[in-house]
Design brief:
Layout: E1 4-7, E2 13-15, E3 24-28, H1 31-35, H2 37-52
Antiparallel strand pairs: 1-2, 1-3
Amino acid sequence: MAEWWYNNKTGQVEQGKQSLGSDRDGPYASREEAERAPQIAQERAAKWNAEDE
């Protein structure tokens, strides 16, 4: 099964570990999910903030 990553430095989706771990989010199950990484991160942060209140 292929792993997909979102590179925060370049804004590009990568298949497999192509860049430094500190520059990427993932793994994601699909390219489409990895493309949504910034939105997913925002949703998770909003959920965590709501739980802290």
